[in-house]
Each structure stands twice: as structure tokens, then as C-alpha cells.
Amino acid sequence: MSVSVASSHELGTVRAKVPPRTRRQQNWFPFLLSAPALLALIGVLYPFFTAIYYSLTDYRLIRQIYNFIGFQNYLQLLRDSAFLHALGNTLLLAGVALIIELPLGFGIALLLSRPARGIGILRSLLLLPLMLPPVITGFMWKAMLAPDSGLVNMLLSPFGLKNIAWLSEPLLAWLSILFIEVWVSTPFVALILLSGIQALPKEPFEAADVDGAPFGFIFRKLMLPMLKPFIILVLMFRIVDVLKLFDVIFATTGGGPLQATETLSISVYKEVFQYYNLGYAIAKIMVLFVINYVASFFLASRWRKASTFDTGVAAR
Amino acid sequence: MQRRLVSLVAATVLVSLIVVAGTGLTSEAFKWDKYAGQTITVMLTQTPLSDGLRPLLSEFTKKTGIKVNYLVLAEAQYWNKLQIDLSSGAGEYDVFMSGPSFQWQWSLAGWIEPLDSYLSDKTKTSPDFDLADFYPAFLDANRWNGKSGGGLGEGKLWGMPVNTETTLLSYRKDVLAKYGLKPPSNWYEWAECARAVKEKSNGEYYGVVQRGAKDITSIQAGFISSLFTYGGKDFEKDLEPAMNSPKAKEFTRIWIDTIKAAGPPDWPSTMWYDEAQKFASGKYAMVVDGDNFVAMYEDPAKSKVAGKLGYAPIPKGPDGAIRSNIWTWGFAMNAKSRHKDAAWMFIQWASSKDTMARVTTAGSWPTRRSVWESDKLKALANWDNGNFYKVITSNYEKYAAWRPTPMTELPAVWDRWIMALHEIYFGQKSVDKALDDAAHDINQILIKAGLKK
């Protein structure tokens, strides 16, 4: 009892010593500093929670009167075969695209990491597909894949392949979209991995070289583990991106023929602007969000582990 | 003396009457600058109409004292941005380019202002505006009573049409002549002619090109005009789907069979702009689509077929009638606008005789009779020895009207419909099954949207 009185008394004297204005500044300053972050958080979270709420309503874009309907939209999604098709299509496309892009990008990064004449030009050429707006890329490839006048068929005609309607057969169209996606995104993978390779410490590789270790061994035991944070990073970006794939498809096939190239994003777009079912469309987006979130969360934890391990090695 | 007095009085009365009438006339004369000092914001989409209008905006400002800010967007972005803008109720855009099917949604949602009260108000509308000068079909398409399933041409006027598109058959005179073929006048001849071109030319020419991409625009113009001309429909009066009626099935079979046999190999990814490019590239003998593309076909800088084309009405169906669909571009007013009178000034100016005559260019055809029948237009649309002008005139006078059933769910209906056409094209379903399934799903869409029980 006496202790507490004494301490409070002491505290009181300490407080009294501090001029009031400084005290106020001290109290507010941290909040002031974090205000932008707080605002950003509100700016992100407010629409996000609004969206979650809308996904629980029957909101239609052309009516504006809506009712809370609980999880009905989500339950309907489970029975919506067109949605399930689009979901499967998105996951398959994303999976196959990543399986191709990662090794291919790695290969290109390895080739470009070696010093050679003109390597700078090659490296900057790699940026080209990334600099084009995706819609333009889509229109460009649509023109190049056209059966009667397209460049691709012109190049293939000496091999007896003529008038192939790349974007107009379900399977071919799917493969064409995959190809365009790989064409657009592999350079990004290559660039990130290239910067990773260039940031690797030289000593372990020189030591391995001196010991006469074969390339396969160096690659598996040295390079891959040391590049792990970069690989995970690139995977993270690519998964988020490829699951949202929209522009290229919109500009080439519009999701057709039939439903062959319809991804979740295309399906959401149609749900909003052709069917006006905003609530239902947002429910679809939420599914995409959850998939993205789980994948990113998993990869982010791996990435944190991998990068601390990496710095640990470097520090020793 | 008395007589003199009488005549004097009479003269005075007469003179004063004239003066009163005169001042009455001057006070009623239309003042364009009534709303000077206001600023309106106009949203435009990239079309020949907006291209023609933009250079004239400064004249509008000079005439009315109303300042105009504007935004121009590509069509796909335009509709999306506008839709979102209107649904937010911000009223940022006072006036925007618009067309009938969009006005159905917006009018029901209360987003756009009916124009009738402005039109009938003599203080707001110039006496020489002359509404009767518009072809009735185009005004009717913009007038709707809000009842899904019908009611076009009734109720309120939601947009003022400034330019229009109707459908016709464009064909290669040289190619058809080379293989001894006549331009088709009905759908059976069309199908035969298309196959004959492909066979006789050994594949050098395709018989037809039509839109087919998995997009709602693929139902518009060519397909819908042709289906209606054949005697088909999209819906019956009570919103019962009719895309699977016997007539519609018959037509769909002819349409898809012909496209498969003699159409572009990439029909399932052919958007309207691809179709136009393909026809202009010179490899196709016939196309049934909008008259707005013809200007491009006939421009030697953009087309290999300029000067080689013939024009005819849409091939006829079994009943011999022609039923072209139309599209009109016009202007609608935001119900949330804070400058409605100034906005009406703009709409009235943009659709006036004088402005319409000046913004009309080849491919952006007018909705007013006085403009279409002017010497400028006769010279401009003189292709194929005046046949083009004749065909389009007959469309305006007799054949053209808004065909698809008015309803808010039109895009959803068309999205499901084009899917059915793809299923038939790829042989996934028979014509019967594909269209029956589509009709069933479309019925569900309408029920869900609350349009029917």
C-alpha cells in the first residue's frame, strides 16, 4: 500500500518535470508517424470488408436495392458448373504455366548470367514483353495467330501446317493462351532469378570449382539452396498474377471458344458487366482471394525461413 | 369624321396588335444563351460521331456560353466506367453517348432523365428543332415504357439519336461474277452462293465472314437481323424464349452450317472488328452486317475491296419480309446532373439539323430525314452506282427497327446464346439440343432477375 503510494507520488513528480507541450508532442508523435500507414490500412480494409459484405447480399449493379442473404452466393457457387469449370481452368492454367515458366526462366537466367559479348543487349531485350501493356500483347498475338494472315502460320507453312485457327479450337486456344502467358511472364522470372544469381557470393562456387565438383552437383547443392528465397519470391508474384489472368484472354478469345479459356477473372467480369450480379461476382472474387491468400501465406512463411537461413550462412 | 375615327382606331388597334404580336414573337424567339456561364461534362466513346463532334464544341460554347468538358474512352472501357459512374450516383457526367439497350437498364434504375419535358417546353427547345424530321424507327428505339418484353416506342424518350446503323448484305461483285453467281436474295441462295464461291475458287475465297467470337457483340447486327428476317425471334410477347422455335432452329442450322462450310476458319474468335478487317482484306465474298463498316470497305487506303462491292438488302426469309435490326448512337442525360437545362442545350444542339449535317460522315449515318436526303449524303453514300444509298433508304423507310426484345437482361441472354452457337459449331450439341438448353437457361436468367415467374 505504501509502496504504491510512493511510486505514484514519484511518478507524479516525474510527470511534473516534463513541460506539458513536449509531453503532448511525445504522445502524439508516434501516432502522427503511423497515420499514413493507418490511413492506408483503412483505405485497404474498408473496401475489403465492404466487398465481403456485398458478397453476402443479392446486390445487382442495376438495382441498388439489395438484401442480406447470408452464404447463399457461396452455396450457389458450389453448384455453378460454369464457375467450377472456370476455377479448374484457372488453377490448371496457373499450374502448367508455372511449371513451364520457372525452369525456363531459370535456364534463361543461367545463360544470361555468364559474361559474354552483347549480353547487356540480350538482358534488356528480356524486358520487352514486360513493357507492353497486356491488352496490347493480347491484340498483337491475336494478329500473329490469325489463320489467314498471321505471322505464326506463315512461319509454319513450309512445314505443311496451314490455316491453323489457333484461337478458335478449344484445346489449341487453351494452349495458345498458355503460350502467350509464358511468353509474357518468363522474362520476369528470368530477371528476378538473374539478379539472384548475380547476388550470390563467389567463394563457394570457386571452392567447388577448385574441388572439381560437377555442374549438376554445384547446381543442386549450392545454387538451388542459395537461390531459394528468390525462387519463392518469384513464385509468390507469379501465382498471384497468373491466377488473375485477364487482359490477354480478354483481347484474344474472350474466354471462348465454348468455355475453353474462361478463367475466374473473365467469369467475374461477365458476372458484373453482363449479368450485373455484383454480390455473386464478389463471392467469386473471394474464392480467388482465398486461394491467393493461402498460396501467398504459405510461400511467404517459406520465404522468411529461407531468407533468414540464407543470411545466416552468409554471416558465418 | 366618325368613319375616319373608326378607321383611325382600327388602324391603331391593328398596329398595336402587330407590335404586340411582334414583341410577342421576339420574346418567344429561342435564346440559345439562356444558360451561359454553366459548365457541363460530357462523356464520349471513340466513334466517328464523337470524332466529328469534338471540333464543333467550341462553336457550341460560342453559341450558348456553356462550357464543355469532355472525356473520350474506347468502347469497352466506356460502358464499364459509365455503368460504375452512374451506379455511384455522383452525377459527374451531365451528358453521355448512349444507345437503346443501355437506356433500358439506366431508366429502370432511375439514372437517366426522360427528355420529353425538355422537348415540349418552348423555352427550352428551339422552334426549328423539328422532331418530325427524325425517322420514326430511330426515335421509337429510344422510347420505352419500362416494361420488359415490349413497350418500345411507348413511354418516355430516354435518348436523342444522332447516328445509326442498319444491316445489309455487302458482296464482292467481281468474285461472284467470276464464278457466274448471282447475289443472293434469300437465305437458301445465300448458303448455296457461299459454298459455291469456296468450291469454285478452290479455297482462294471464303464464301462468308460473320462475327462469332465468344462475345455478346456477336449476336448483334448480322445474326439478329438475319434471324428476324428469316422469321425467327428472340422472345415471344410473354418473354417466352423463342431462340429455339422451329423457325429459329431452321435459321441457326443454315447459318452455322454455312459458316462451317464456307466461313472463316477462326469464326469462333472473330470479333466485329476482325470481321470488318477480314472482309476488307479481300478473301471473303459476302458479309451481312452493319452499314457503318462500308465506309472502311470503300476506302482504298484501308481496304483491298474498294470499288468492287455490291450492296443488297438482307437476304429474305420464307415470308419474303426484311427485318433489319438497328443501333443508334445518341445522347442521354444524367438524372443526377446539376445542369440539366444546359445539358439539354447540348443534346438539342448535337442532334439539331445543322450539327447532324456537319458531323455526319461516311459510315456515321444520320437519324434525320433532311440530312440523309441532302445532296451531300447522296454523294457520300453513292457506292455501287447508288445501290448502297437505295438499300439504306429502304431500310430507313421500311425494313429497319429495333428488333431484340427490350429487357434489362439482354447482355446475359446474348452471352448464353453465343455459347449455344459455339456448341453447335463445335458439334458438341445438335442444333435442337443446344438451342433448347439455351432457352431453358435463359428462362432461368429471366426468372432470377425477376422479369417473369
Structure overview:
- The complex is a heterodimer of chains A (316) and B (453).
- Chain A is mostly helical and 316 residues long.
- Chain A has 14 helices and no strands.
- The longest helix of chain A is centred in the C-terminal third of the chain and has 38 residues.
- Chain A starts with a helix and ends with a helix.
- The N terminus and C terminus of chain A are likely disordered.
- Chain B has 453 residues and is an alpha+beta fold.
- Chain B is 46% helix and 14% strand.
- In chain B, helix 9 runs parallel beside helix 11, helix 10 packs across helix 11 and helix 19 packs antiparallel against helix 20.
- About 2% of the residues of chain B have low confidence.
- At the A-B interface, loops of A face helix 4, helix 5 and helix 19 of B.
Keywords:
heterodimer, A: mainly alpha, MetI-like fold, disordered C terminus, B: 453 residues, alpha+beta, D-Maltodextrin-Binding Protein, domain 2, ten-stranded mixed sheet, 20 helices
